[in-house]
Design a protein that fits this description.
Elements: E1 5-9, H1 16-24, E2 42-48, E3 51-57, H2 82-99, E4 102-108, H3 115-125, E5 131-136, H4 141-146, E6 159-160, H5 169-178, E7 192-197, H6 204-212, E8 230-236, E9 239-245, H7 265-274, E10 277-283, H8 290-301, E11 305-311, H9 322-333, E12 342-344, H10 355-367, H11 373-386, E13 391-392, E14 395-396, E15 399-406, E16 411-416, H12 424-437, E17 446-451
Parallel strand pairs: 1-3, 1-4, 4-5, 5-6, 7-9, 7-10, 10-11, 11-12, 16-17
Antiparallel strand pairs: 2-3, 8-9, 13-14, 15-16
Length: about 450
Amino acid sequence: MPKPLIAIVGRPNVGKSTLFNRIIGQRLAIVDAQPGTTRDRLYADADWNGVEFTLVDTGGLDFIPAPRDSSRHADPTHAYNPAQIQQLVSQQAQVAIEQADVIVFVAATTDGITAGDLDVAKQLRHSGKPVILAANKADNLKRELDAVEFYQFGLGEPFIVSAMHGNGVGDLLDKMVESIPAQPVEVESDELRLAIVGRPNVGKSSLLNALIGQERAIVSDIPGTTRDMLDTHLLWKDQPVTLIDTAGIRRRGHIAHGEVEQYSVLRALRAIQRSNIALLVIDASDGVTAQDAHVGQYVVEEGKGAVIVVNKWDLVQKESDTLAIFERQVRKALDFMAWAPIEFVSAKTKRRVAAPLDAALRVREAMQRRVPTGELNELVREATARHAPPSRHGKRLRFYYATQPSVAPPLFVFFVNDPDMVHFSYERYLENLIRERWDFSGTPVRMAFRRRETER
């Protein structure tokens, strides 16, 4: 189930990224005095008082109309001017507003009320979403008093904060989690939910259309045609399946030339969160790119199953070992998800387009697989006998008991004398043995190491 989404919006250079970093507790967003540094939405999971949510940093909102000379967009060598860049930032920030459950509007006490602030406030009042006003950069008494004028926005009492120093951020967080609307209860269903994800222009919509045999999604050679998630329901081998098509995911900070593109990372992330399994689509003519790995990381972090779909295989000149060579390249580039099956297809010719669905059904079985406790502990005994656990300062890591408390993704918990002694290489060793013994193809495996009660 998707986490509640809280978007931080406002004009450029009011301290949105600084507030974002303060809340998540790490320097993830780029912070610079130059207005407009944040070019694309940035997000991170956070929690406050036990309430989990996804926080989104956005580019500045200035409601500047699109440039009239649209013909300039057709020139791929043309560099965007500041107004055009701001238009792109405004477009992608608007998507964040549409997707958000709660909006935090940041204004700077150092600037007072500007015409841009008033435009943003007007837009937010009509959004129908809970809006919290944060009067930022209130680093001294004078600026705290100056925040009173922000009542003019018509958004209620401003929360006086200094994101740089952390003043008032706790009260702001209290209000943020209090404003999250009640989340609908998700009814458990046997329906397989597949998110079709990948960078722009790899053929996700073409794959969807080939699977369902009709033009359900718009197909275009222009990257980023798909703007929204499109849910399509079908029966596959008597199994109910929902296919979720998404817009292409770009790396943060990448602005494409051409038509104004609404970056849709948030929609894709929500689609991944809603899904059981993701079909990660790769363009065979390009090979695996850094963006492909970026998308794959989203899938793994969300704990979803995955099938790697190499599309446009018809465009690759083939020899007897072409497929094997390409598969090795994919495995090397996506080594963090080496457990995912790979299917080679051509959505254009419809060749083998059914293979990803068949693979997804097998992945779902693997995600639901439970290992009997007795068999799991037998494997642990064999593993420790074959390869002794690490030791430190004359003390050796000891395994007492192992169990699998949950599935989808499978979670294995190991009770030991000292969890801090578990080296990542030994954890990987145990995971590999588990995968060799039982079929967990297509699903990430979670490993947890806990101290036995008698050791505490």
